[in-house]
Amino acid sequence: MHTRYLPLLALGAVMLSACTEQVSHKEEIRDTLQVPAKSNADAAQQREVKQVGQKGLDEYGSKSLPLVTNIYTADPSAHVFDDKLYIYPSHDYEAGIPQNDNGDHFAMRDYHVLSMSEVGGEVKEHGVALSVDQVPWAGRQMWAPDAATKDGQYYLYFPLKDKQDIFRIGVAISDSPVGPFVPEPEPMAGSFSMDPAVFADDDQQHYLFFGGIWGGQLQRWTKGEYSQQDDYPTDDAPALMPKAVKLSDDMLSMDGEPQDIMILDESGQPIKQGDLDRRFFEAAWVHKYQGNYYLSYSTGDTHKIVYAMSENLMGPYTFKGVVLDPVVGWTNHHSIAEFQDKWYLFYHDSTLSKGQTHLRSVKMAQLKYNDDGTIVPYQAYYK
Asked: Which residues form a coiled coil (predicted)?
């Protein structure tokens, strides 16, 4: 989930224009999609737009269309439960709030779950799984969620500002992967910041990764308690790092104190705060491939998804490179999952809304690895 608006819309428009011209030149398939209706009372009527791209996916990771177009979706967290793919995204809508550095215009109020039985098949949107009105401690802004399962129960982890406007992480439970989810009456004790991501290791122990700077408030927790003032390291000091903690057996609380997950450069030194192309911003995600752990994340104001690798889940991780270059719109948020013996990258962009950074759509593309285990960077647009 993104936390600050900068004027990338012009770049997005250029990318979208260039993408459209190139694909038109190649006479690719054109599909007429319906822009999702805005959710607030003053919503404008739906309008049709032309979205250009190839239907489905292929082994080369060609550009993909939005998975659903009846609503705007973002920040996809993908998991395979019982041989079916489930995606847990944010639900964007037009709240009519001016854009600002804290991301107040990202005023999401509920979650919807997507599912599919096969790539290229029907994508189901299952309606509201959890609403802000159901959460007793809720203030505002339901940002990027994630989900996990254990012993036949499904757990939705979600960041939400409390009534003091401080981000906490909540948990909601369901008997079904698509909900409806019933929230716990209080946020997780000791939780803070945003972008929860749950990783189940080979022994089925679950770990919670989280954190995000700027509007994600991680920089306000450097002293161990919330401060109204930002506290960033200097540019030549180690960057703020994502946090991680083991989850308790009941999946509802933290088993211990969150710790920093260190991201190192090629010389073994921590990535610096001023290294904007490599430092952690938000959207931490962990997956495991051929015995190695991969920590991928967004660089925020340089708009990339990058990754680091480690032999140990809790790090340290060594920076390796780019997963996804900037997309149309300001934010870049993702997940990576294996489905039916292939690996996929799930991401979002703002092509459907013609560059409106707070109205995004979830997409997916096949992810490739090199022989040494490094990731082949994915290009979302035709050059």
From this structure: none
The catalytically annotated residue of 75, 92, 125, 146 is 75
230 part of the active site: no
The CATH number that applies at residue 153 is 2.115.10.20
> In 3-state terms, what secondary structure has residue 16?
helix
For residue 61, is pLDDT > 70?
A: no
Tokens of 90: 């944010």
pLDDT of residue 64: 78
pTM of the model as a whole:
0.87
Share of the chain above pLDDT 70, in %: 83
Residues 6+ apart with CB under 8 A from 286: 197, 199, 207, 209, 293, 294, 295, 296, 313
Please identify which residue in the block is written with the tokens 């003032």. 229
Whether residue 270 lies inside any domain: the answer is no
With residue 84 as reference, give the H or E element that holds it. strand 84-92
363 is in which domain, residue-wise?
A: 9-212+327-376
Q: Assign 102 a pLDDT band (cuts: 50, 70, 90).
A: confident
Please tell me the distance from the alpha carbon of residue 361 to that of residue 380, in angstroms, as a whole number.
13
Per-residue pLDDT at 300 exceeds 70? yes
295 assigned to some structural domain: no
| 202 tagged catalytic | no
DSSP E strands in 299-381: the ranges are 305-310, 317-324, 334-339, 342-349, 361-366, 368-369, 375-376
Q: Give dist(CA 43, CA 39) in Å, integer.
A: 6
Find the catalytic residue in 94, 146, 195, 282.
Answer: 282
**How many of the other CB atoms lie within 10 Å of CB of 199?**
21
For residues 167 and 226, give the distance between their C-alpha atoms in angstroms, rounded to a whole number.
10
Over the stretch 226-259, which tens digit does the pLDDT of each residue have? 999 999 999 999 999 999 999 999 999 999 999 9
